[in-house]
Write a structure and sequence with these properties.
It comes from Mycolicibacterium parafortuitum. The chain contains twelve helices and twelve strands. By secondary structure, it is α+β, with helices and mostly antiparallel strands. The model has no long low-confidence stretch (mean pLDDT 97).
Length: 381
């Protein structure tokens, strides 16, 4: 098995709903990061064996293999194929795993992994508008549960004893850390600006400066009248794309490239589909076991902030150091463009590792249906 590396990682700014990226077609937005990726790495796209592209709502603008049409929109040679992956919110993290596995095995040499979601144009839940994906047997197996992620987040908060105050404090932390990171220029090198008809979009749009738990306390619960989950402690509906360049380490060196990080291990697991969002807990255990790295050796954890109870339950179960968790803020502040989020988080994490000389980084995503991906990478000094 070949050592496999992330040579380059780039993302668009994350646009807020109906914000600066709302008029971009998903294929065109994808093309921005695909071209930025090869330009930054200094490689010809003709050497790319495949593009594995995550996308969740594969209807309308994002239907009919958006991965392939993104390649064509980028103007790359027609010989470069593309495919589209859907593992719910972990789609582009799974795209990374597929790309790495292909390169490790020797089946392919150079693969791009990433994803896109333009939720302003293809709304959350659009893929369910014409039918019910679960079927009567699944519903009967789980007592006709609605498979509503907001209700699942409420159940997690209840199970782990997470009060609304604790959730809102964590959410305010996300905005505070994201604002500090943006002000310090931590995102500048990883973001490629997007030129739109209205002008360039060059910064993440979702950060709400000055957010406090006291301000969030005034928001109404979204899923239960007496619940603790609301818009302010949930991830934002967003637009964005991100891409990662994957190849064997010896191939990268022969091409004169300087990799950022080595892929150490990946894992995917299923969990209770009613709680739904707890999969990062067993996925973390699984990936650490596979890698032989202990949690206390990991210098940064990116645990997607789909809802505040998700990373907080993960913290409670793993005993991880909260100071290392989402140190640049998370999806509550920066947004969650579904199919792009796995690649966005990885881009954010490997850049943070390089900027701060952190050896190991761990990323994990909860996913609809009760699955989760976890990935461990190692900085190449």
């Amino acid at each position: 098995m070949r050592d496999t590396v992330i040579v380059e990682a780039v993302r668009t700014p994350i646009g807020k709903r109906n914000g600066g990226l709302a008029d971009m077609h998903a294929a065109d937005l994808s093309a921005v990061v695909l071209n930025a990726l090869v330009e930054r790495a200094g490689v010809d796209p003709s050497i790319i064996d495949d593009v594995v592209w995550g996308c969740v709502s594969q209807v309308g603008d994002q239907s009919s293999n958006i991965g392939r049409f993104s390649v064509l929109a980028a103007g790359w040679p027609e010989s470069v194929p593309g495919t589209t992956v859907n593992r719910a919110c972990g789609s582009s993290q799974q795209a990374l795993d597929f790309a790495v596995t292909s390169v490790m095995s020797g089946q392919q040499d150079v693969v791009v992994a990433g994803g896109v979601e333009v939720m302003s144009r293809v709304p959350l839940g659009a893929a369910r508008a014409t039918g019910m994906p679960y079927g009567p047997r699944v519903l009967a197996r789980y007592g006709d549960f609605s498979f509503n992620q907001g209700i699942s987040a409420e159940l997690i908060a209840q199970k782990w004893g997470l009060s609304r105050t604790r959730l809102d404090d964590f959410s305010a932390r996300s905005h505070e850390l994201a604002a500090a990171a943006q002000d310090a220029g931590a995102f500048d090198a990883q973001i490629h600006p997007v030129l739109t008809d209205a002008g360039p979009v060059s910064a993440d749009e979702g950060i709400r400066r000055g957010t406090t738990a006291d301000k969030l306390a005034g928001l109404k619960p979204a899923f239960k009248d007496d619940g603790v989950i609301h818009a302010g402690n949930s991830s934002q509906i967003s637009d964005g794309a991100a891409a990662l360049l994957i190849m064997a380490e010896d191939n990268a060196l022969s091409l004169g490239l300087t990799p950022i990080a080595r892929y150490r291990a990946g894992a995917v697991t299923g969990a209770d589909p009613v709680l739904m969002l707890t999969g990062p807990i067993p996925a973390t255990e699984k990936v650490l076991h596979k890698s032989g790295v202990s949690l206390d050796e990991v210098g940064v954890y990116e645990v997607n902030e789909a809802f505040a109870p998700v990373p907080l339950a993960w913290l409670a179960e793993t005993g991880a150091d909260e100071a290392r968790l989402n140190p640049l803020g998370g999806a509550i502040a920066l947004g969650h463009p579904l199919g792009a989020s796995g690649a966005v988080l990885m881009t954010r994490m490997v850049n943070h590792m390089r900027d701060n000389d952190i050896r190991y980084g761990l990323q994990t995503m909860c996913e609809g249906g009760g699955t989760a991906n976890a990935t461990l990478v190692e900085l190449i000094a």
